[in-house]
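Example 9 (inverse folding). The structure is encoded as follows.
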C-alpha cells in the first residue's frame, strides 16, 4: 500500500509499505536504487516483509519527479536515474529517510528498526547509520563508500556491507579502503562476493546471482536480528 509522509519542511511525499503479519513486528526502512520504487524494489520489499518485518520504502525522487519508476535495462531510463540522483540534496534525502523511520516507529510502537539500501541506497543507509537512529544498517553494493565510511563516526549504528568483487563502481583500491576501515569497527561487518557484479541481489536483474543473493540475505537477516531483536 502507499502512505503519505510529511517532510521536515512540511511537504507531502509518498512511501510504499508492506506490512508483516504481525503489525507490531520490527521494521525496515528499505532504500531505493536510482530507479525509484519500481517493480524490483517492490519485490524486495515483499521479500523482506515475508521474513517478519514491516517495510517502508520512501520515494526519494519526489522533489524532482514524484512516483517515477525506471527500468535500468533501458539506457535512457538508466541515464535519467543518474541525472535525478545527481540533482538530489543528499542531506534532505537523509532527512526524508528519518521521516520514514519515525513513521514506522510510530506505526509499530517500537524503535526496533533497521535500514537496508541498494546501490545509491547502499550509500544512504551508511548516512543513516552515522546518525545512529536506526538499530542496524545493511548496505548492498553501496557507491562512494570509500570516502563515506572513513568519515562515519565511531558512534554509528552497527553496519553490514555487501560488496561485489567485480563492481566497477567499487574498484579494488576503493574496496580495500572500505575493508580496512571496517576492520577498525567492532560492530561492523563486510563481505566480498567473488565473481559477482553490481546489483547481484536485484530481483530479476541482469547481474542477479541466486547463490550470492541467498547468502547475502541470510547474513543480513542474522545481522539485523542480532541487533534489533
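The amino acid assigned to each position is listed next.
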Amino acid at each position: 500500500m502507499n502512505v503519505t509522509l510529511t517532510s521536515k519542511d512540511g511537504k507531502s511525499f509518498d512511501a510504499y509499505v508492506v506490512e508483516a503479519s504481525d503489525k507490531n513486528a520490527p521494521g525496515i526502512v528499505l532504500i531505493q536504487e536510482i530507479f525509484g520504487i519500481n517493480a524490483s524494489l517492490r519485490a524486495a520489499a515483499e521479500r523482506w516483509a515475508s521474513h517478519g518485518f514491516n517495510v517502508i520504502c520512501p520515494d526519494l525522487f519526489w522533489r524532482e519527479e514524484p512516483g517515477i519508476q525506471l527500468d535500468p535495462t533501458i539506457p535512457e531510463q538508466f541515464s535519467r536515474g543518474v541525472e535525478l540522483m545527481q540533482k538530489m540534496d543528499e542531506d534532505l534525502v537523509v532527512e526524508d529517510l528519518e521521516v520514514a523511520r519515525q513513521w514506522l516507529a510510530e506505526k509499530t510502537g517500537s524503535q526496533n528498526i533497521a535500514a537496508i539500501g541498494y546501490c545509491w541506497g547502499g550509500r544512504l543507509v551508511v548516512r543513516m547509520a552515522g546518525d545512529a537512529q536506526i538499530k542496524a544498517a545493511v548496505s548492498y553494493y553501496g557507491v562512494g563508500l570509500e570516502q563515506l565510511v572513513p568519515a562515519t563516526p565511531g558512534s554509528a549504528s552497527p553496519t553490514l556491507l555487501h560488496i561485489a568483487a567485480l563492481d566497477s563502481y567499487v574498484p579494488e583500491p576503493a574496496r580495500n579502503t572500505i575493508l580496512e576501515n571496517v576492520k577498525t569497527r567492532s560492530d561492523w561487518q563486510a563481505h566480498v562476493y567473488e565473481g559477482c557484479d553490481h546489483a547481484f541481489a536485484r530481483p530479476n536483474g541482469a547481474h542477479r546471482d541466486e547463490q550470492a543473493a541467498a547468502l547475502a540475505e541470510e547474513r543480513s537477516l542474522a545481522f539485523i536480528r542480532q541487533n534489533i531483536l
